[in-house]
Amino acid sequence: MAPTLNVKQATGNQSSWNTLLPDFPKGPLSKYRKKASFNWKEMAMFLDGEDIIRLKNRIFSALESDPFFARHPGEELSREKYQELTFLRCKRLFEYDFLTQQEIMENPLKILNLVICIGMYDWSPCLQFFLHCGVFGGTILSASKRFANFVKKIYNMEIFGCFALTELSHGTNTKGIRTTATFDHNTQEFIINSPDFEAAKFWVGNMGKHATHAIVYAQLYTPDGQCQGLHSFIVQIRDTKTLLPMPGVMVGDIGKKIGQNGLDNGFAMFHNVRIPKENILNITGDVSPEGKYSSSFTDVKERFSAALGSLSTGRILITAVSATNLKLALSIAIRFSATRRQFGPTDEEEIPVIEYQTQQWRLLPYLAAAYALDYFSKSLFENFVEFYAGLLTKQKSQRQADLGREIHALSAASKPLSSWTAQQAAQECREACGGHGYLAMNRLGEIRNDNDPNCTYEGDNNVLLQQTSNYLMSWMNCIRNKVPFESPLGTINFLQDYHHIIGWKFKANSVDDCMDSSAPLAAYKWLVCYLLRESDLKLRKEKQSGHSDFEAKNNCQVYFCRSLAIAFVEQTVLQRYHDYTHDPNIPSTLQPVLKNLCALYGLWSLSKHLAVLYQGGYVSGEQAGRFIQNAILELCSRLKDDAVALVDVFAPPDFILNSPIGKASGELYKNMWAEILQGNKALSRPSWWAEFCINKPVTGRLSSRL
Ligand SMILES: CC(C)(COP(=O)(O)OP(=O)(O)OC[C@H]1O[C@@H](n2cnc3c(N)ncnc32)[C@H](O)[C@@H]1OP(=O)(O)O)[C@@H](O)C(=O)NCCC(=O)NCCSC(=O)CCCCCCCCCCCCCCC(=O)O
Ligand SMILES: Cc1cc2nc3c(=O)[nH]c(=O)nc-3n(C[C@H](O)[C@H](O)[C@H](O)COP(=O)(O)OP(=O)(O)OC[C@H]3O[C@@H](n4cnc5c(N)ncnc54)[C@H](O)[C@@H]3O)c2cc1C
């Protein structure tokens, strides 16, 4: 299915652009804004549409006018104060209730935009709110109608929720979870137990200080002593009136993290905690009053997949969340680079650092990635909406099952791709802003540290990639035996031409031949087929040499299955963005720059696989590699004058971006200076001044004790 999020969008007229998207203040960035090949307002209207822009404006201006969201330059909050403020902000989000059910039903993309807008302000209140309403609430909402009472309490904050899967000693390996839920048919209750402290629930967002209820994943035991596998249960962990722990629950905060410190991540241990029978989230199985287990899944593996199905939602959202961090970091670094002047052709003239080829090559491919990944995350979200509708209506068709598998395979690789790209970009942007990038007020450190766990939570990136390569390898039998196959979203359909594609060669004879994304796209199709063949051969060889399935699979990851999963998802992102940017209905005023972005994203991503392209014989000779490199540089240079306008399209208002060097005026030094002087202690003498002025050290006094 082609994503619907595309060229249907109307751009409106000039007067609607100006009403919704005010002009930026004139200043040092005006020069680059004038040079742009397109109108940034037309692009914003085209990409988002009027309705979404209105929503974004509504959210941003509500936050900007609300004292609870005020920014305080120079203020350093303690962790406890930051947690308190985060909770107060989260409560305000309830009060704003930005979206009605009706609006979400009419356009589900609005919920994604809501996450993005609040996250652009600060990820801590955003995650707190959505872990409760979305992850906790959404899981319960989709489980069964019998939780209607809970649902009401969730959305009026009578209770506060968290999602507790991970334990101290097991995270990615969900089969290793050891918390137990034993059914007692005499009392019609489940008894929740943590066998020891290593099985304590750990890392759980909202659990540290304030969640009253948790979705707890546990091994379900029926009275016959049988373990029925991983299931989830609603467990009350704190009293709703006092926030004190419930009997049998030991719950606390895990301590300071590298980022996201407004959020209270916690631990919990359970000692014979009794919960009513009805609190099992009967998504994959249930227990009768007599204690007999039943499940609509006869296959244990299918049941396990379904039990973890809700994790795909988070992975799709993290793909979008990471793309958002990419946009934030680039907004700051590109505006800085267009105003920061260093060196020049003559002693009299210094030039903006964006004019340097190196600076362009370091930043502009990430700008292209931001556009491609943003489009991909939204299109995958739309695919997910279709799948979710099937879940809610209890669809049991083969298509629904295949769609679930395909979305799992895609999200298990798009989360790694997007989170790693944002992580590397945040560091590159930090360095691209030189010393000023390291000043906390400019926000690049916060963006980098808050993005970091996207690489880990909802499944470690490296382990998740194995899910995608497993999915791809599962088509190898069909490929070998030339049995026709296709998937609901069509992402693997090109593999039907495997035998043909594997014989392809790089066709470009000049840099010009590489300037369209069709060149890297063809190379990617070959790369995926080649890595699939090599991974399959390697796996078979490993098994033939006597290794167990477990060992064989582990020995096939580096350079084989891992590269396969990455190449596949990059190819899929590029294919979707290529189709989008080449649609004949794209306004002719926007198409050239969009095509340049797509080509740059494709070539830059592909260039990281050059060694394998040579190794496998797709490209040969010195020229081929040089064409690709020169095309990347040419595209960077073509996009250089569009770069400021391209970030204007997605940069949030200054208040939200919260970075003096990233402000829309481009008054780099004035903005920094103002922020520094607003810090209430910038000019004051230190409280410990006397330690220098009065209490002098007696030089050498301690040396005799050594
Ligand atoms: C995937 C695993 C690593 C698998 O491990 P195994 O090796 O043990 O299993 P197998 O490979 O054998 O798998 C068996 C079988 O199952 C299939 N499978 C697995 N998962 C899925 C799935 N999700 N969907 C479909 N199918 C699945 C698999 O393909 C196999 O099938 P085949 O044999 O046919 O191939 C697994 O163990 C795993 O998932 N590990 C990771 C654990 C994890 O993710 N933990 C998360 C804990 S919670 C957390 O971290 C939260 C953090 C905070 C998150 C912030 C989110 C930001 C955004 C929030 C905004 C939300 C807004 C919501 C909006 C709204 O609705 O309002
Ligand atoms: C900020 C934050 C918030 C979180 N919030 C929540 C929450 O709300 N609820 C919740 O339940 N959990 C939460 N988590 C936990 C998170 O989901 C886990 O940390 C994550 O699933 C990874 O598991 P792990 O930490 O056990 O890593 P491990 O699985 O122990 O991984 C450690 C290392 O070993 C490697 N490794 C492991 N297995 C393999 C393998 N088979 N092959 C190759 N390499 C392997 C990994 O690549 C990784 O580098 C949160 C984590 C963080 C950081």
TrEMBL record:
Pathway: Lipid metabolism; peroxisomal fatty acid beta-oxidation. GO terms for biological process: fatty acid beta-oxidation using acyl-CoA oxidase; lipid homeostasis. FAD binds at residues 166, 205. Its cofactor is FAD. Transmembrane segments: none annotated. Residues 309-473 form the Acyl-CoA oxidase C-alpha1 domain. It holds the Pfam family ACOX_C_alpha1. It catalyses: hexadecanedioyl-CoA + O2 = (2E)-hexadecenedioyl-CoA + H2O2; (2S)-pristanoyl-CoA + O2 = (2E)-pristenoyl-CoA + H2O2; hexadecanoyl-CoA + O2 = (2E)-hexadecenoyl-CoA + H2O2; a 2,3-saturated acyl-CoA + O2 = a (2E)-enoyl-CoA + H2O2. The active site is at residue 458. GO terms for molecular function: FAD binding; fatty acid binding; pristanoyl-CoA oxidase activity. One of its GO terms (cellular component) is peroxisome. Belongs to the acyl-CoA oxidase family. This is Acyl-coenzyme A oxidase. It comes from Meleagris gallopavo (Wild turkey). The gene is ACOX3.
